[in-house]
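Hi support team,

I'm opening this ticket because the web form for multi-chain structure prediction keeps timing out on my end. I have pasted the exact lines I submitted so you can reproduce it. The total is 922 residues across three entries, so I didn't expect it to be a heavy job. Is there a limit I'm missing, or should I split the entries? Thanks in advance, R.K.
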Amino acid sequence: MSYLILDGLSKSYGRVPALREFSLSVERGDIFALVGPDGAGKTTALRIVCRLIDADSGGVWLDGHNLSERFDQLKSVLGYMPQTFSLYQDLSVEENLIFFGGLYGVTGEAYRTKRDYLYGFSNLGPFAKRRAGALSGGMKQKLALSCALMHDPELLILDEPTTGVDPLSRRQFWEVLLHLRSQGTTIVVSTPYMDEVARADHAAFMFGGRRLSIGAPADLAGQFEGHVFFLDREPSSQLVAQLNAIDGLSARRFGSALHLYIAKDQTPARFAGPLASLGVDISLLHTTPPSLEDRFIQLMEADG
Amino acid sequence: MQRIRFIARKELYHILRDPRSLLIVFAMPVLMTFLYGYAINMDIEHITLAIIDQDKTADSRDLTGRFYNSGYFDRPAVEPNLTDLAQVFRSGRAAAVLVIQPGLGAALMRREHVDLGLVVDGADASLGAAVQAYTTALVNQFQIDRLPMGTHPPGVFISRQVLYNPDLKSSHFFIPGLLGVILMTISALLTSITIAREKETGTLEQLLTTPVTPREILIGKLLPYVVIAFLDGALIVTFATLLFDVPFVGSHLMLLVFGFIYVATALSLGILISSVTKTQQVAMMLAQIATLLPAVMLSGFIFAIRNMPVPLQAISHIVPARYFVRIIRGIMLKGAGIEVLAVQAAALVGLMILFMFLAARKFSTRIG
Amino acid sequence: MTERVVVDLDRLTRRFGSFTAVDNISLDVYEGEIFGFLGANGAGKTTVIRMLCGLLLPTSGGGHVAGFDVLKQSEEIKKSIGYMSQKFSLYVDLTGRQNLEFYGAAYNLDRRTLADRMAVLTERLSLGEFIDRPAGSLPVGWRQRLSLAAALLHQPRILFLDEPTGGVDPVFRRTFWGLLYQLAEEGVTIFVTTHYMDEAEYCNRISIMHAGRIIEVGRPFDLVHSHGARNLEDMFINLIRAQETAGATN
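Hello R.K., no limit was hit. The queue was backed up. Here is the completed structure from your submission:
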């Protein structure tokens, strides 16, 4: 049985549905990414797992136990990092760590050992006395993660931990997550960044409160139905419109290049004529692997 | 148990590092005590009185002297133009004018009826009333002193004695009540902010996922405020007795016990307000309306409840400060014991239980 | 994209006390180009943009924006540029229409012109009925479109967009970028700052800044290949890390 199971979760705020029969399962020791834009329901799902809100229907199981019934016992294996910075801005780095450590019963020598370890990978040591509110965005994220890790949680729930953070800091953050995984921690992380999905073991696409797809990152992109071609030429919007007008073909500008999409049972040869009349030589088309974004859009459009 | 310590310590950091709460905790009580003790003095003295002495006899000079030596009346700084009394009052040169007509001395000798003319600026109603009262008293004394030794004039006289505040010093009236206002303010205002702030900044979300229970959160958060309330209370009582000579006749222990009950009520009220608001701003506003305002206006601190319109009197029954003000005045000024204050005490305890119950119910472990 | 240079920077430098935020950067940007500004936080991107917007004067060096001198003509520069910030900066309790009317007035547009432009923009950006709803009640994607409309009211030649499609759904992102491509074709030069590698790939060219300097400029596709990286993100990270190691050994 999977370590963490979300089963048919539904939640509405008034008439607005935030989650619609949302299900997924996470194996122990995995990093699982929930990917989707703002409003997809990622935060709602994670908050239900942490019992900060109650689902209208459906349930959550952790290690075989019903989470909402046994939450008070299960709390201590859970580590949570909400989307917005939720530590005390007027307390210093060290004071925040002491506080959260204390709530989990991590005090004295155990606290000091843990703290030094956390300072080791976060490099927050030199800033121990600085007010949390005065830290940079990246450092705040590291502190929040450190506080969530004080009690060696089995399950780490991270809600968009890297939003707004530059690519380098994001990479460092993921290196920490990979290290945690190697020590057996199960991690569920939500993100709007498609490129972060690549580093997870499994991922689910979310949109409009529903799960669009689930699987290993490589599989997810590979499930794209169709072929994608790349042409190194900056197209005018007129050309793009004309290409889109061709039945069975869709096109879009991509930076200073062009992407062409055709259905999976077709080949570019079929369109050689119409393309040539628009000045596109099919021999210059290169196959390019479909991106996660391509697949996400395809799923969104199918979902209606 | 341990967790409560951590929560309490964190709360203390917040209090000490927030300039706003420091202001409320330290500056406000001291400021208010000095304000109500010194500056706001409802005793009416040093009234500018112009006396027109048209008699100019030894008797009229005696009478004039009594007025100005009483401490209640002062001579006008500039001699007013008495041909235009209306102008005198408009310009504020004098608040009252007393006219002693010619023939006062002669009339007294012949035991004839004589009138003194008193014109008062009624724009300030309490001033006018005071002038009349003082004048009547001074004139009566003037007459009594002129009687031969041993005679007693016929008629009904009032032998007056004021207990518990013989000089009717307003500071003795205000400052005990001030304790009620300040304790309510500190306790309710500060606690109303604290939970609202955790909601607003998002820290509550983080806190609720930890093993800490709602009870631990509430107790831990309240502990520092209880201590602060007591420190402030002790400070005000000390100021009251040392600086303003407010007497403390009754039991210190009783005040401590009732102080504790009162503070618990106020804290619960603060928590309740915090639980139903989403932002600190709204919490503060609601706290001021629900605690500070009633404590000042409806508790009997300044204005007598008896004189208020009936709806307000009804509302005052759920204002904890109403009972506490009576209790503390009873203890400090009158040395009252529990038998006398039983009703007030029972009402206060009842309110405490009510608010604590509501506060506990309203505190949610869910967000949104 | 044309051959005309619309922004040229020549050894542009900005110091704050002893700290050099921007260190001798030189750059040419072409009319109708979509140019991505990348770099770690603190690399100096914001300072460069402020100078390009006429909000900050360089300490040394110079350049031109839309033909105006960076050193001497900041007021003219301000009038020629449009800015869309990452955080929604319109008034949440006013409707879209009211917001646009307000900004139109701020740009000194007369009623007639404003009405015309608003009609055009509403059509183009498919604002439709959303324009009469309070701005704060709009979903993220529509808010971004409204912000774009506000930045375009005075028909600027250069647009600065800060993380324009953060958190929006992929379909929306494509549509929004479709609009940007159209604008670029019409001759508007667009600067985009972003932390999204996906979005960086949508640009014609990108520059990568580190410690106040531009350490790489070029087409995303070309840069990935010339650095032998798997993708843009790897290229970016390897490049920055190499810089930091080099800096540490100096």
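A quick check on our side: Strands of chain C lie at 5-16, 19-30, 34-39, 60-65, 68-69, 81-84, 158-162, 189-193, 205-210, 213-218. Let us know if the file doesn't open in your viewer.
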